[in-house]
Amino acid sequence: MSIDLRSDTVTMPSDGMRHAMANARVGDDVYDEDPEVRDLQDEVADLLGMEAALFTPSGTMANQLGLRALVRPGAELLADQDAHVVRAELGAAAVLSGITTRTWQSVEGRVRAETVQALAAPNAGSYMVSTAAIAIEDTHNFGGGSVQDHAEVLAVQRFAREHGLGLHLDGARLWNAHVASGRPLAALADGFDTVSVCLSKGLGAPVGSVLAASRDRIDEAKVWRKRFGGGMRQVGILAAAGRYALRHNVTRLVEDHDHARLLAASVGVDPRAVDTNIVIATVPNAAGFVTAAATAGVRLSTLGPDRIRLVTHLGVSTADARTAAGILERLLVGWSREATTSPAGGIS
Ligand SMILES: Cc1ncc(COP(=O)(O)O)c(C=O)c1O
Questions:
Q1: In the chain, how many domains are there?
Q2: What is the pLDDT of residues 23-53, one digit of tens each?
Q3: Are residues 22 and 141 in the same domain?
Q4: Is the CB–ligand 1 distance for residue 80 below 6 Å?
Q5: CATH number, domain at 326?
Q6: Is residue 84 within 6 Å of ligand 1 at its C-beta?
Q7: Residue pair 119/97 in contact by the 8 Å Cβ criterion
Q8: CA of 261 to the centre of ligand 1 (A)
């Protein structure tokens, strides 16, 4: 049995969650008749301090419904260079909604208001593309699970308000930011026009995300969800898993954060630099290292030629984290030595 640190999306539904799913009340959600979905949407809207919410099959769909609510075709979205909406949604904003994108550079995905302001072009006239909205990711996945600096987010929000720009929060892992920062979810979501959260990552549900926004925007997003093929029927079975996750799997995320810090040192990362459940480390020949780690019983992912990513989640116990740390530490010692002594300077 290997220890799977590739992503927090690999989590399996627990027995308790499966029980909740088996006992879910269901109805046709396209007719708005699924009680479990309605309750989930109300609960998430309440938690985030938003007027309304919509259950979606994926985080990508929740993001894309949020973005298209804020940016008309041909106008521009600003986002971080490594934002999930830019790197990992396969051009959906452009393909589905005609949205153009420009990106700002960041360190570890941490937003800086000054950088965003320098890039923005609100009301650019009839020659250049006008910025319509800004997307912020909290926590930042490819940035290494970074929690956004609240003061910087507030400064971006002030700027956006002054210039009439929309604000989308990709909060796939907003739960982690909440647990790590101690700030209420509603405080983290405050000031954004549209907010997406995922139930299928650290929270351990098998499927599902939620978009929260004003009632008008959610009514419009519901039309587009159906148009995108995301209208679902007796989907209370999945909403029940999400509701179970909200009750049982949010506060425990602190364990994942502890495990990530425990693992950090084994791959040469300062544990104090780890905000939540994701660790990104630099190793020569990342693909080779990931293959060697898998053979030794630890599954990781690559984020580039010399970067690996480790993600902790509810399927990784403290014992697993310790075992994985031991394996990775031993592997890395040999790996670095080989990299520095190899005459070709590489690793086979
Ligand atoms: C930050 C972020 N946003 C959105 C998503 C998209 O979620 P999904 O895979 O459910 O479409 C992910 C998935 O990993 C993510 O990390």
A1: 2
A2: 999 999 999 999 999 999 999 999 999 999 9
A3: yes
A4: no
A5: 3.90.1150.10
A6: yes
A7: no
A8: 22
